[in-house]
Amino acid sequence: MSELLGTLRNRFRHESFRDGQERLVGAVLGGDDVLAVMPTGSGKSLGYQLPAVVLEGTMLVVSPLISLMKDQVDQLARRGIPAAALHSMLAGDRRRDTIARARAGALQLLYVAPERFANDEFVRLLHELRVSRFVIDEAHCVSEWGHDFRPDYRRLKSAAAACRRSDGRPGRPPVAAFTATATLEVRQDIVDLLGLATPHVLVAGFDRPNIHLDVEAVEDDWDKHRRLPALVSGHRALVYAATRRTAEAGTATLQAAGIAAATYHAGLDDGERTRVQDGFADGHISVVSATNAFGMGIDRPDVEVVVHLAIPGSLEAYYQEIGRAGRDGRQARATLLWDPGDVQVREFLIDSPRQGHPGRRQGAVDPQAVIRRREVEHRKLQRMVAYAETDGCLRAAILRYFGDPAAREPCGACGNCGAPGVLGPRERDIVGTILSGIAHAGERYGRRRITAMLRGQTVDLPPGLARLSTAGALRHESDEAIADWIDATVAVGLVAVTADQYRTLSLTALGRDVLAGRVTDVRLPATATRGSRARRAREDDARLRRWRRRRSWRATDLVGDLSLGDRWLVQSMRRRD
Fold it and tell me: In CATH, what is the architecture of 425-524?
């Protein structure tokens, strides 16, 4: 134990293990097969990196994302731990140098992309290496029931069997499989399909209590992009989009707002992807708008905000992506911008033929397997929609899905439960808009006319009121919702109402301080946000049910390729609504 702590402090610069890490390291060093299910941000990678320093031979680590490999290899190099990676972005001379170092036993960790195991030359190399442990990261990728099935993972059982143990004992090296998000069904698949022999199974709690969960209902793309800058401004943040085009649109919105943002997706050239990844890692880029190709290997502990511009395909994908936030233990926020129109885009992506990787030979496609996979993905999407639409505890919904017995509600730290009085960026924006509207109107009008002005219903308003900059600023909120917000501002002393028959609204001294930014700790009754959310959820649910009744319509009636953009697709659906 003292030797492990010494290695932890001297090589990894950590004073102590996090919860669950010591048990994980001990299991990997113990020599049995291991299945570790631990949430993103819990420090799973230490579970194989520290043993790699202690054990003789090379730790072979299968990893599906180049960004993950690059980030971890760079960190290990800074700690003086010899490590390298083999993947498609590696230049020929560097690939040859990495293979030579591996053959010479000069690497303590060798990261390998799963598709390398389809290469006969690489499989022959496995016989020459002295492998201490065969590590499989993102092990859920082996299961068709998982959220990111990758057929190349099906080769890993035989690949591990082809490896030579570094301790000279007969048989394959011990296998350690790691994942952050796996239901009971997926865990059993991992054990069976990777050939784990009576594995030591470690399942940590899935809860990340320092991440505040929120779902904000939005009307359309314009509404999303209106809210986005306020959600990430002043924070180190990740913004996830469903497609490359919407990732680029997110970046454009943020840059127009003066925020240092960049785009990352698989369609960029290698140099640009490296620039963005390095810029985010060293702090020159504060926000990255990306597809899910980015973030899984980023080990920045200080990501404060994760925003999803569109609904992800599954709860597993969502929880893994928001897990990039708050890894330093400080408070963080994860916000899903929920538009039911995005469900149609996700369904289109599920039903579209999968694109192969350029330059990679494609195997025969089993039509029945494709059908089964699509059915699984549609079911997972339905569970994700249920999460977005629930008016119950968001945290409990996720924990119940993963079978975590710690699920309880209310949690007090999600948008539906509401830590009473705490406002998120959207709520602050609404309150500020109401205060600004009252002030710009000269504090001469009552609730009805202020509400009509904010909603953009200006036909019957005095010209001076109709021309205000705040006219239409809350057009996506209902009359009832704005009334609730005004009541809340009155209740906490931001707005005063005259006692005469006109019931004129005016700002109090505190309201003026809040509007001017002199007071930022604004607290309203939690019922204000919950009531607004519940009404929006009911409206969204009705719209979604109407679209589902017309399932005979298909996205391909409108466009055969998403290259025309999600915005056009969704707007076309709304024109039919």
Answer: Orthogonal Bundle (1.10)
